[in-house]
């Protein structure tokens, strides 16, 4: 089990960076095509608001394009709400219990691939990725809120094909 936390006053990962503070695990399996999947169980304590807990980051990408293909964020509403970005609800009532997330990505070199997000084994969201890029998966606490953010992770598995 990995317990990760960060405070809103913590520094970003590099001096001068405009990004928010974070504590993350990065899967150093960069890819631009093929199929990948991240699966794990996540526990978020009640009251935590603002962190991204799982993402596919587009490390090298065309200028002016989005940095992520998926960001799963937690908001302090409805007993804890898990969303893709800030608007697409995946689940509510997530606080103080373990839940399973699986994110599958089929990337297409030079084109747009497909991302599928599962919550406790049920497909909740299917969408296209943001186009050509070199990517990698991350999980942890990338804090966009106030106060202390925490998430716990266990039984993490990463697949590639």
Broad structural category: mainly beta
Q: Strand-residue fraction?
A: over 45%
**How many beta-strand segments?**
12
Straight-line distance between termini: 26 Å
Global outline: globular
Major sheet? 6 strands, antiparallel
Q: What is the percent of helical residues?
A: under 10%
Mean pLDDT: 92
Instruction: Please give the radius of gyration in angstroms.
Output: 15 Å
- Uncertain segments are none
What order do the SSEs take from the amino end to the carboxyl end, as H and E? EEEEEEEEEEEE
Word description of this protein:
The chain is 0% helix and 58% strand. It is mainly beta. The strands form 2 sheets. A 6-stranded antiparallel sheet has the order 1-12-3-8-9-10, with no helix packed on it. Strands 2-11-4-5-6-7 form a 6-stranded antiparallel sheet, with no helix packed on it.
Name the descriptors.
12 strands; 161 residues; 6-stranded antiparallel β-sheet; globular
In a few lines, what is going on in this structure?
With 161 residues, the protein is an all-beta fold. The protein is 0% helix and 58% strand. The protein is built from no helices and twelve strands.
Write the layout of secondary structure elements.
Layout lengths: L1 E6 L14 E5 L7 E10 L7 E10 L7 E8 L5 E4 L3 E5 L5 E10 L6 E6 L2 E7 L5 E10 L4 E13 L1
